[in-house]
Amino acid sequence: ATPTALMVGTGRGAQLGILIRGPEVLESTRRVDTVVLDKTGTVTTGTMRLQDVIPAPGTDAAELLRLAGAVEHASEHPIARAIADGAIERGAELPVPEGFENVAGLGVRGVVDGHAVLVGREKLLAEESLALPDELAAAKRAAEAEGRTAVAVAWGGEARGVLTVADAIKETSAEAVAELERLGLTPVLLTGDNRAVADAVAREVGIGEVYAEVLPEDKVAVVKRLQSEGRTVAMVGDGVNDAAALATADLGLAMGTGTDAAIEASDLTLVRGDLRVAADAIRLSRKTLATIK
Ligand code: ADP
Ligand code: MG
């Protein structure tokens, strides 16, 4: 009867919008006590829009957006799309960058019209010993305190400005978090984004445990650390900078709206990208296993 019950669970999963890699996956959900949620694209829609264009004194705002937009046009990251689309909407013509490089979890670099341009976290600028001048750093912090993500732009050996983007929290996220807690699970927010943005999002959806400013390779280390504390970890992500963590978790859940890498690294796929279905998946597996026992 065991295989039959598992097959029934798998079929019911498909009806709920959950693709299950194999019936045995339902077994590993049994002990899950912690659910790690990636922020961008999982708790939030991941569809960011350009908000503020803040040039350094002496830098032209249109030029700032044109050079940053040109480099970001070569990247698939949600922040990159927001900046490239925002630049195009504001009338910029974006040349194709040379020597484009994606620095995972930090930003991008590329050469545009002979300028070596950097766009990303302050840490990326610091790698070239560049820092934001005080007034730009203050503008960046103010935007972050309001929950916007701010990135720095530099070229020609100088910080040239700050661009901010904002990402909406999914309407269903707070309800999904409450649902996970009702199932006795501890929700955790994990993000490469800065502390202020992470805390603002966590507060809004009701998550108390937050890991911010985590580089993509360190997302795996956070999952491992939770596991070493004796916790059994499910992780939900969209595959942008979190595919390795999804594979490391005891149970990986991919947003169906995410990348192919996420789906490949995961045990379960939430077809509609609705976080509430993560709770349905755990409830389903518990029920299915109860039937077997
Ligand atoms: P999350 O963990 O929320 O999914 P990521 O790990 O993808 O976020 O990115 C972490 C941070 O790295 C971003 O908040 C941003 O500051 C910076 N970053 C990553 N990619 C880019 C990019 N293409 N352009 C600018 N900044 C970027
Ligand atoms: Mg992400």
UniProtKB/TrEMBL annotation:
<protein>
    <recommendedName>
        <fullName>Cation-transporting P-type ATPase B</fullName>
    </recommendedName>
</protein>
<comment type="similarity">
    <text>Belongs to the cation transport ATPase (P-type) (TC 3.A.3) family. Type IB subfamily.</text>
</comment>
